[in-house]
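Final report, results section. Input specification for complex C-07:
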Amino acid sequence: MVHHWLVKSEPSAYAWEDLVKDGKTAWTGVRNFQARNNLRAMKKGDLVLFYQSVSAPSVRGITQVVKEAYQDGTAHEGDWSCVDLKSVRNLPTPVTLAEIKADPKLAEMALIKQSRLSVMPVTREEYKRILELAGMN
DNA sequence: GCCAACGTTGGC
DNA sequence: GCCAACGTTGGC
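Structure output:
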């Protein structure tokens, strides 16, 4: 059973274009318990939306979990995890935060309800709706 | 650049 | 255990 997720990144830290170029990356640096627990719940093959925060906030692409949670080597103290994500495809049209907020079907998204959470589950319906808005039918 | 919302820390 | 102070995130 494939589950769906959304991760955030500021383009100044790690942009969607960086992941497209790299192909794959270790999703390190998460230092929030709830976000960490979400990372740990990810399974290989799960699909993860890449959301760009702060600058032109929008969902930019689709990624996939290629390695499940393991020790985040960038953490010098504490019990933190990361996963490996690979880029799967670029969204033909990014789905902006404004569009998401304006869409009744997406009103319950954690992205809206818990604006500071950086790794969150997305329902199957929400995932499908985002792809629709991105022009992928 | 500003500021609201939120998570964490630490004094009591 | 409460809550004020503080730091960070992220929208605008």
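Residues 4-133 of chain A form a domain with the ph1033 like fold fold (CATH 3.10.590.10). The radius of gyration of chain A is 14 Å. This concludes the modelling results for the funded period.
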